[in-house]
Amino acid sequence: MNDRKYIFGKFLKDIRNKRNLSQERLAELSFINIKTISNMENAKVNFDLDNLDILSSILSVDLIEKYFEIMYEDSSNIENIISSLNSKDRYEGKDQSLEINELIRIKDSSSRHVVKVKANKLILFFKSMEVKNDPALRKSLVLRALNFDGDFDFDNLSNNYFDYIDYRILMNYAICLDDYQEKLRIYKFIEECDVLDNNIRAVLYHNISNIYYILEDNKKALEYINMALAYNSNNPKSAVMLYTKAIILMDDKLPYEDYIKEALDISKKTDPDTYNFILHKFKNIKR
């Protein structure tokens, strides 16, 4: 439970900093002792719901809802889905019905607003991943997810409040864009976030590697795919990441055969759809 208190305290501090408020100024606005605010942010006190209610109105975020979300485990199913989302290969057009159906069940059975918002965002996100050969529809679904609980500021990304899943959804928004420099701007913004776990960093660095490869900066592309593979080391090996490394090496006329072989061997054993996806892509490149 103390770990959860620390997580909530850090969340409170991050929100205060995002609002450009010092502890002193927040104490003045809330009439809560500055020592109490400091202790809350450092998880040295039990959280008083009345104080959280006062701070919620000043910081424009429902701290009570967030407190219960972090301190208790009624959101654990959603967190498991998020963890699964970032820890296995996914690509456009792949069936996501298992996740979507589970999220619909969670949404319909929960009475908590924050859980319903997360579930709805993720439903739209997973639906966007099922879309194939329709970029406009895919982008529309991702935009609906980002704007589900308020207007998202795409020009100044730091103006937004980000839940953990919003970083993942924003990553897929970048995939929908045609402007590669804009994609990189978004990816670099996400890269600077300090709350990302290894799974989402692996996905992020894989995406950045793909952009640098398209921009013909193979040195950067190889650097980022190696980082992606390193951050993904606690998960089963990613066939798609290995395939990406193979094509970068092949483009540089470096030994690549072991990587494409491993990518095909892994996917053939674990996911026939991924195997066919990689095989089709590789054959087209070799032509």
UniProtKB/TrEMBL annotation:
Superkingdom as given in the UniProt entry: Bacteria
SMART domains reported in the protein's UniProt record: HTH_XRE (SM00530)
Start and stop residues of the TPR repeats: 202-235
Molecular-function GO terms, alphabetical: DNA binding
Keywords: DNA-binding, TPR repeat
Entries under PROSITE patterns matching the protein: HTH_CROC1 (PS50943), TPR (PS50005)
Keyword Manganese: no
Domain HTH cro/C1-type: 12-66
Xref: Pfam families: HTH_3 (PF01381)
Official protein name in the record: DNA-binding helix-turn-helix protein
Natural source organism: Anaerococcus tetradius
